[in-house]
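Letters spell out the chain; backbone shape is given numerically. Take this protein:
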Amino acid sequence: MRLQHFIAACGVASRRKAEELIAAGVVKVNGKTVAAPGLVIDAKKDSVKVNNKLIKPESRVYIVMNKPAGTACTVSDEKGRKTVVDIIKPAVKQRIFPVGRLDFNTTGCLLFTNDGAWANAVTHPSAGVEKKYFAKIRGRAPSRSVELLEKGVMIEGRRMSAKKVFVMKSNDKNDVLAITLTGGMNHQVKKMMAAAGIPPVWLKRYSVGKINARGLSAGQWRYLSKNEKESFGVIK
């Protein structure tokens, strides 16, 4: 493991900040000061100190939240808005981060961890993890629009399609669609629906893989069960 990644895994600082600490000469490995990042260490055998304090990796945590509307899906927000991490931070000492993103006013299932490999297994397009959304539109959904979402629409030069789309609720004013995707583009659902002529007025993510936020009120969160953590094939 590279030294800067180890420092980040210990919760001392982000990877970039860890590189700054190394450059500042305040990091020692086995008693010797390291002045340049990139050194590969044995996390189990080597002794690492930052500002003369011995550091050790944080325990791994895995969390699901029912994200409320009006929260930024990031660790810190340049505009000073409340973030999803702000909601959890008082109760969790580890340096967690959201796994993937939801728009500021999109609600629903959002995962958190401090395990980079696990997060990558959840978000990387090659993993094909299914994400299910509920989207409300004004009026009725034309069958042509539903077909377009399943067959594919062009988004920024790429053809994007949903794995499954159907109308789950309907009344005179609105339809609510259930949409299942495996992609990972930012704002993908909104962009696809707009391209199909049915922009959403309300969007909620129901699940990521086998994990959902059912039973949690907006802003509530819980730790994942053993089976949930292992469901992406990374932890055994």
Summary: The radius of gyration is 21 Å. The mean pLDDT is 93.
